[in-house]
Amino acid sequence: xxxxxxxxxxxxxxxxxxxxxxxxxxxxxxxxxxxxxxxxxxxxxxxxxxxxxxxxxxxxxxxxxxxxxxxxxxxxxxxxxxxxxxxxxxxxxxxxxxxxxxxxxxxxxxxxxxxxxxxxxxxxxxxxxxxxxxxxxxxxxxxxxxxxxxxxxxxxxxxxxxxxxxxxxxxxxxxxxxxxxxxxxxxxxxxxxxxxxxxxxxxxxxxxxxxxxxxxxxxxxxxxxxxxxxxxxxxxxxxxxxxxxxxxxxxxxxxxxxxxxxxxxxxxxxxxxxxxxxxxxxxxxxxxxxxxxxxxxxxxxxxxxxxxxxxxxxxxxxxxxxxxxxxxxxxxxxxxxxxxxxxxxxxxxxxxxxxxxxxxxxxxxxxxxxxxxxxxxxxxxxxxxxxxxxxxxxxxxxxxxxxxxxxxxxxxxx
Length: 414
Fold this sequence. Notes:
The chain is an alpha/beta fold. 42% of the residues lie in helices and 14% in strands. The protein folds into two domains: 38-221 and 384-406, Glycogen Phosphorylase B (Rossmann fold); 224-381, Rossmann fold (3-Layer(aba) Sandwich).
């Protein structure tokens, strides 16, 4: 509704007072999962250019709130799921810049401005999915903003120097200039969030460190039903994922080369040529593979090697859903998923030597490990558990938020 020029000032004030009260009524009347369908819901995701862990979370949010609209800075429809293609997706002005779908990361300084152009005044509930900039959207004053944080932006915080060193000199100069401003914006916009939800205890600690905010930990959804326990003893070790420096695939390649163990590497990235140069004859590179090939290799591997530090790490849970153990570096989300010797081993130092020692310890007890017990452990991180926990949290927050809104609007002068 738009106010006409002939509307008197008292009438205009009455309208502006009623609009949030109507939204408040929708929130206060929400008391069950079915009632949340009455709400206007916006899902804000940094960019939709692939189908990784963050995008799987967006899919689950859409299943929880089928009426939701998606807002994202850039979208490549050729690389998202058929399910997401059916949603109402709204992009920013960055989408219109030539090459944006491939070079979106180079537009980081423009992203805060693009994000704040999204008009979310019609929405009662805003769910931001944060890893790149997403939480900085501007909501209506009485709307509930829940941020599911996969990670505070790594490239401006704890991974700043790693990303910066990988750029040409022009990029390094630009990043040095813009990063302080982006950090200030990132911290400031954390106050726009009503409730932070972290995908792991590790991320919760980083939210506390960078934003000085507490959060509730709800692990991300893993489609455990898509995997099944493999038959027999595994045939090879497996590394899967992006071949980038911070994920340390070189540790897996060197360890299996030195030990003469078979290793299959699935993935692509800027480290591929280097990894091939240090690999021995027991290491096989398959490049990027579709999901069915990855699933098959997860069910047939001896163990998944996971030498990097991840905020959560969905792949280890997928391996465990296939009944296969995980040998992971003792950091990040692996401390929460690879939580006992019954499901895998963690090595304390991020070195080839430490992984070799862990492989030796694993092989001594390999025949005694129960694949079905490993799969049972993975079910703690299933999509159903994620939906149940997040739904309960949002319903509770909607009730609390509605009560607070009622108090605020009840104190308004007539």
